[in-house]
Amino acid sequence: MELTAAPRISSLVEQHGTAGSLRPSAVARVGQAVNLAVERFVTVGETIADDYQEIRQGMYEACKEARQAGSVATTKIKVPTYEGKVSWNTYWRQFEAVVRNWREEEEEATSLIAALRGEALEVVRTIPEGSQDYKAVTSALEKRYGDAHLQHVYQAQLRNRKQRF
C-alpha cells in the first residue's frame, strides 16, 4: 500500500504545486483517503490473522501500527487558549502557526473566538455579531492586548510614580 500510494500523492503534488500551497480542504481529503486505505489494510490484515495462527500476533501488531500511523497523519493540533494574561503578540504568532496549517480562512475567526477565555473573550463581545470576522477580532484583541496597549499602561504607571515623589 505504502509503495503505491506515495508515488501517486507525489505526482498529484507535482502537478498542482508544492505541498505547502495545497488548500487545507485538499489536505483533509488526502487525510481521509489515507484513513480509508489504512482501514482497508487493517480489515484484510485482521482477516488473514484470524485464518493463520502462526502470523496472528505479528499481523495484529502491524494493523495496530497502521492505525496509529494513519491517525497521526490526520491529527489536528489543538488551538491554544488565550485569557489576556500573556503577550498577545506571542499568542497570536502561535495561533497563526496552528490555523494556517489546517483551517479554511473562514474558520479562523471561529477558532480564535472559541479559544478565548475570560477578559479576552469579553473584548470580542464588544464587536457587533455580524462583524466578528477574523480581521475585526484580531484587531480588537491587538488594540486591547498588543504592544500599543502596554505602552499606555507603562506611561500611566510612570506618571503615577512621578507623582509620588
UniProtKB/TrEMBL annotation:
One of its GO terms (cellular component) is cytoplasm. GO terms for molecular function: actin filament binding. The keyword Cytoplasm applies. Keywords: Cytoplasm. It is found in: Cytoplasm. InterPro entries: Alpha-catenin/vinculin-like_sf (IPR036723). GO terms for biological process: cell adhesion. Its main location: cytoplasm. It comes from the Eukaryota. This is Uncharacterized protein. It comes from Exocentrus adspersus.
